[in-house]
Amino acid sequence: VYLRNEWYVAALSDELEGRPVARTLLGQPLVLFRTASGKAAVMDNRCPHRGAPLSTGEVVGESLVCGYHGFSFETTGRCNHIPGGAVIPAKACVRSYPVVDRWGWVFVWMGDLAHVDESLLPNFRWTAEPGWAGGRDYLHVRSNYTLVRDNLLDLTHARFVHKNTLATSAVTDTPIRTSLHGRVVRVERNMLNIEPSPFFKKIPGFKGRVDHRQCIEFHAASYISINTTVTAVAGEDDDRTAAFYVLNAMTPETDKSTHYFWALVRNFAPEDDEVTRMQHELNRATFQEDVDILEQQQALLDSAPADWQPVAVPNDGGCIQAARLMKRLLAQEAGSTA
Amino acid sequence: VYLRNEWYVAALSDELEGRPVARTLLGQPLVLFRTASGKAAVMDNRCPHRGAPLSTGEVVGESLVCGYHGFSFETTGRCNHIPGGAVIPAKACVRSYPVVDRWGWVFVWMGDLAHVDESLLPNFRWTAEPGWAGGRDYLHVRSNYTLVRDNLLDLTHARFVHKNTLATSAVTDTPIRTSLHGRVVRVERNMLNIEPSPFFKKIPGFKGRVDHRQCIEFHAASYISINTTVTAVAGEDDDRTAAFYVLNAMTPETDKSTHYFWALVRNFAPEDDEVTRMQHELNRATFQEDVDILEQQQALLDSAPADWQPVAVPNDGGCIQAARLMKRLLAQEAGSTA
Amino acid sequence: VYLRNEWYVAALSDELEGRPVARTLLGQPLVLFRTASGKAAVMDNRCPHRGAPLSTGEVVGESLVCGYHGFSFETTGRCNHIPGGAVIPAKACVRSYPVVDRWGWVFVWMGDLAHVDESLLPNFRWTAEPGWAGGRDYLHVRSNYTLVRDNLLDLTHARFVHKNTLATSAVTDTPIRTSLHGRVVRVERNMLNIEPSPFFKKIPGFKGRVDHRQCIEFHAASYISINTTVTAVAGEDDDRTAAFYVLNAMTPETDKSTHYFWALVRNFAPEDDEVTRMQHELNRATFQEDVDILEQQQALLDSAPADWQPVAVPNDGGCIQAARLMKRLLAQEAGSTA
Predict the structure, then answer these.
(1) Interface confidence: ipTM more than 0.90
(2) B191 forms bridges with which residues in the sheet?
(3) Does C235 contact chain A (CB < 8 Å)?
(4) What does the pLDDT look like over A94-142, one tens digit per residue?
(5) Which listed residue, A130, A281, B142, C232, has the most CB atoms within 10 A of its CB?
(6) Which of C29, C57, C65 comes nearest A300 by C-beta?
(7) Taking a C-beta distance cutoff of 8 angstroms, is the pair A329, A183 a contact?
(8) Strand residues in chain C grouped as ranges (E)
């Protein structure tokens, strides 16, 4: 069961430069493509003619032509041509979905058209803001998207999963503050006067002790932004402050798999491509460590007794609030639909 | 649900030269082999002793000896020896199936023995006829066999799927004639005075315009023969006519997979092995393009809502007639069994 | 359905020298590890906190620290530390299992703690006895463990499956004696004055005729020991007797897969490492031949009609007795539990 009146990230904008992309979102097989004029589009991938994949077809002008028998569809899903000049049957159309192509991501709305609302988009402007530099990437994860969400809401895992990059004992020793702001759950942790984690020793290269502030926000249904600010403590021969945003979109593919899109940007040395490259590589390797755990966690939950329940401790505060919020929003949406 | 009182192709005759072959047909695991005297045989693969695969055994004279504990079976399925001299229990036998070994293919009858009828075999004599040359091959397809059938009954796909070999815009622009002849559905299309498709520009090498006639016949339950005749049009400096048969046997493995046997023969330059080789390679690559689409189509149909129905256009005439014929034959067979 | 009040082999003792091992036994995902003091331990692998795999964690002293958020567990399954100093919830514990680390194998008891009984361990002392030499290994088999058991209880298969090592026509031609001794089924076969099988021609190198005696014992629920004694017959220029034990532990992973542990030891030339190596290689290749058959057998049984039953002959005596014993023991255990 997914919230449907939501924007989900369907693709990196770059992915639509080439051939149409077949991708399953919320259990539904979709085709993603960009028309000749540059408009991103998302439709059901199942051609109404015989069920063949539209994604094997070709973009011709503003239409997508099926790769099997050549039925042509506008981005609205309307069929505008059938080879051989057949009269176009009324049922020869596919469902298409509203799209927003922004900040390097293609967002899709798979819910009720009466509720389409761009103000529900999370604010990911830093990925396109002057003064900020970084990159974005994609990971396929064979786990439910809520396991990725909870991974990011409890960063104490950094100490155990990411020994070579994000580990610091302060992350487990410093209590969090959790708060709810409408559709947002915020988790804050201020780690003051600590040894920098290996990542920050490399980027931007802190040598002395730092104040390391984390602000993690879960934006229902599928986004986590992590704002990290690291400042050299007074007395160190260093007056730098480095800020980072890790912006995460966890789009359900199925109930057992997730399209995990992430972007990582920093507010210093924006022209230094070597830092950008290194930052990207470190983060990619770090997130792969999460994927390895998450996929095993999913398998263990799959084989767990039906009444199995996690055991909560204070650091789960964010996870618990997020689960509670989602339960409420799902009930609301079910109620408004019924 | 399959028609059972039918001949299905189980193997290329050549496949039985070596070790016994394990192959599932109509959902049933079979062993196919050839005895010392050269007789092709098909039996259930599950040894009645412990359920081990007879296909791991060895042909000894006219018998197949199980590869686990050595029970020996005649091609009738009768057990004729148990090591250690045990009395042979009445239940120690396997079901065997009538076989016809003809035209390079091994046909098997998995239905009622009272109805075995060689006259139901399709006529594939061209694969063994003097003056005709070509070859045969095998493809495993992870789709229901009816999707392969419908692929061949609507050749308009050639324009979109087979751009480098069979494509011609005439195939979509020329209407078909569909007719029913007993257990045969015929689809005819005469494309007159057209540019030859890439294949015919290579083989036999038409340079000018041609008349290209297609006659596609579906022989229930699992055969399609395609007769193609290409003739240089009057006025071109060419008086050639080239005829081809593509003979296709789509044998259900399971409801989601098909053993697809094909043969392609031509009526010219029968001694030219280079043409035979090139024709084979082009056709193999072309059919692989179909497999790619068919497997994705099957996956999309698997995930379709239960009430999903294809949308029909005139070029589906052959597919619709074939589906109707099969429905009638299945009902007949069910009625005669009940 | 498995007997639970039993010792099952979980691992080779050597396997626990490195990182914790994730392994499923009787359908339950477990973690196996050895503490700093050298104690072997087995616990459920699912961390009670969030369901992550304890096997990705690290052994710290006598505890296993979860690789996700660092919950620490003693070998009893008691949680002794949660990072951040949280109060340890009562439910933050995992189930641990009694272990015996003996003869190179780690035995685990997954049944009722009130019934733990080391006297139920099979006697595998030869693997650690002076004067005996050999090795042990592990095979993963995608078949139910009873198929492995029955493979070993009917050695007539050696003639057909192991043509290059164990084959001898005497194995099928010599009748067996089957007897029941409490929880043990014994199958004996004395093959007198026969040509040695290929294995014994190599190890220890019999050239003339031999008496070859087999004593196979099934110890419920998951063990087979095979004692083989080969003696040069009187009149041959050879007075050697060679004895071997093949000790087999077939631990159910799931109802379709088995952890198959084996050890092979001999009572001669114990210092000859080349013989030990060759003996190991021959046996490993031989058992792989069994695995190939067993996995196909499982697949054929999976697709068999629900009422399919094997057909029994006298050489199945051991298999039949073993199945009968297991049925009785399962009923007993179910009765005592209920």
Answers:
(1) yes
(2) B212
(3) no
(4) 999 999 999 999 999 999 999 999 999 999 999 888 999 999 999 999 9
(5) C232
(6) C29
(7) yes
(8) 7-12, 21-25, 28-34, 40-44, 58-60, 63-65, 72-74, 79-81, 96-97, 99-102, 105-109, 133-141, 177-181, 184-194, 210-219, 223-232, 241-254, 257-266
